[in-house]
Specification:
Distance between the termini: 17 Å
Oligomer: single chain
Radius of gyration: 20 Å
Number of helices: 5
Structural class: mainly alpha
Order of helices and strands: HHHHH
Length: about 160
């Protein structure tokens, strides 16, 4: 199994996780909404906290997917350029993204260690389960950026983008 196949599987798994986090997010939000308008449904406080945690994971997983798909927003400042020039500009962009990935990985790891002995106020969830989203995002960004760098350097060497 080559690297591209592994990354494809990881990407597919992340898409499923994103769909699952959206599905899980719907439950506490729906409970919050219904409890406001229907008197016999109790108002649970933990639903707000769970919704916030699901939202954090949704954002991080979505960012991981966006790096792989190249769907983060970008602004086109240049007129249409030749293929090699576009590849060189993408490499510059990927270097900036690489810096952010390293920051997320390093400081996210520190953040996770900080939350290792903490638990959430209402749901009593271990906070490292939430905080680990940051270093995982950085790690997946590094993996997916490695693929992007390989593609763009291939174009610069005269090949075509796979």
């Amino acid at each position: 199994m080559n690297l591209r196949a592994v990354l494809n599987r990881l990407h597919d798994g992340l898409q499923w996780l994103l769909a699952a986090s959206v599905a899980v997010l719907i439950v506490p939000v729906m409970m919050q909404i219904l409890s406001r308008y229907i008197g016999f449904i109790p108002r649970y406080i933990w639903t707000e906290e769970l919704a916030r945690f699901c939202f954090i994971w949704m954002i991080m997983i979505g960012a991981m997917i966006a790096v792989r798909e190249g769907t983060h927003f970008d602004v086109d400042l240049w007129p249409p350029l030749p293929t090699k020039a576009n590849a060189a500009l993408r490499i510059i962009t990927h270097i900036a993204m690489l810096v952010f990935a390293i920051v997320f990985l390093y400081f996210g790891y520190q953040f996770t260690l900080f939350g290792a002995n903490q638990s959430s106020e209402l749901a009593e969830l271990p906070m490292w389960l939430i905080f680990i989203a940051w270093p995982l995002a950085g790690a997946f960004w590094l993996l997916f950026l490695a693929e992007k760098f390989a593609e763009d350097f291939s174009v610069l060497r005269g090949g075509v983008r796979p």
